[in-house]
Amino acid sequence: MSIPENKEFKKIQFYLTANYNCGYLPEKKAQSIVASPYQNVNQNEFDNLITIGFRRSGNHVYKPHCHNCEACTPIRLDVHRFKRNRTQDRCYKKNNLVVVEEDLNFLEEDFLLYSKYQKIRHNDLSSSLEDQREEYKNFLLTSNFITKKIKFYHNDKLLMVSIVDYLNDGISAVYTFYDRNYLKYSLGTYSILWLIEKCKRENLPYLYLGYWIKENDKMKYKTKFKPFELFEDKQWKIFNE
């Protein structure tokens, strides 16, 4: 992944971070290209950056740029090519959750679900509740772009929240967290299936799923939605494996 030409993004500078521990492949060090200053990245430029492999986390627009490693591969779905398999079709039809779309705001019920998810999913027991609140706000409630919370309810109980960015050509799934006590609902799968249908209703051709890493088992679910596209050699390529 190369640094974009400045002429494409006149008001943006791109810098390379120092090495840090990779969050996906623990034995490796990572680096990222970051678009700066963040406030100078307008919606149209952000859309264009996503299409060439960038990603947003809080107020950082970045993409991996690691020495001797290209494991992080941008992945997206062409929603009109996608076909649900039998398992996905059952998942979509059986859940029938109530879905509410909101602007970014802090609500305690959202935060408590996020905190519970982090503790179980990532074994995060080190931070105080107040520190976690600040992390949650900075990570998921900070955005200069068109960002929404998609909330999924069952019998008035909040089961899942998806944070998404709206783009000119699709939706970018930023982060999803859910109640791990309801694994039988296959909530992660359902959120993607729901967003695919949302893209179709809004006439948006792509659902961006961030990065896929073949060696990371937690990311295997992304290639179960077929066909999928990977950004390789500066172009999107279709895979149906």
Automatic annotation (TrEMBL):
<feature type="domain" description="N-end rule aminoacyl transferase C-terminal">
    <location>
        <begin position="109"/>
        <end position="231"/>
    </location>
</feature>
<dbReference type="GO" id="GO:0005737">
    <property type="term" value="C:cytoplasm"/>
</dbReference>
<dbReference type="GO" id="GO:0004057">
    <property type="term" value="F:arginyl-tRNA--protein transferase activity"/>
</dbReference>
<dbReference type="Pfam" id="PF04376">
    <property type="entry name" value="ATE_N"/>
</dbReference>
<protein>
    <recommendedName>
        <fullName>Aspartate/glutamate leucyltransferase</fullName>
        <ecNumber>2.3.2.29</ecNumber>
    </recommendedName>
</protein>
<dbReference type="GO" id="GO:0071596">
    <property type="term" value="P:ubiquitin-dependent protein catabolic process via the N-end rule pathway"/>
</dbReference>
<dbReference type="InterPro" id="IPR030700">
    <property type="entry name" value="N-end_Aminoacyl_Trfase"/>
</dbReference>
<keyword id="KW-0963">Cytoplasm</keyword>
<dbReference type="InterPro" id="IPR007471">
    <property type="entry name" value="N-end_Aminoacyl_Trfase_N"/>
</dbReference>
<dbReference type="Pfam" id="PF04377">
    <property type="entry name" value="ATE_C"/>
</dbReference>
<dbReference type="InterPro" id="IPR016181">
    <property type="entry name" value="Acyl_CoA_acyltransferase"/>
</dbReference>
<dbReference type="InterPro" id="IPR017138">
    <property type="entry name" value="Asp_Glu_LeuTrfase"/>
</dbReference>
<dbReference type="InterPro" id="IPR007472">
    <property type="entry name" value="N-end_Aminoacyl_Trfase_C"/>
</dbReference>
<keyword id="KW-0012">Acyltransferase</keyword>
<comment type="similarity">
    <text>Belongs to the R-transferase family. Bpt subfamily.</text>
</comment>
<feature type="domain" description="N-end aminoacyl transferase N-terminal">
    <location>
        <begin position="21"/>
        <end position="88"/>
    </location>
</feature>
<keyword id="KW-0808">Transferase</keyword>
<comment type="function">
    <text>Functions in the N-end rule pathway of protein degradation where it conjugates Leu from its aminoacyl-tRNA to the N-termini of proteins containing an N-terminal aspartate or glutamate.</text>
</comment>
<dbReference type="GO" id="GO:0008914">
    <property type="term" value="F:leucyl-tRNA--protein transferase activity"/>
</dbReference>
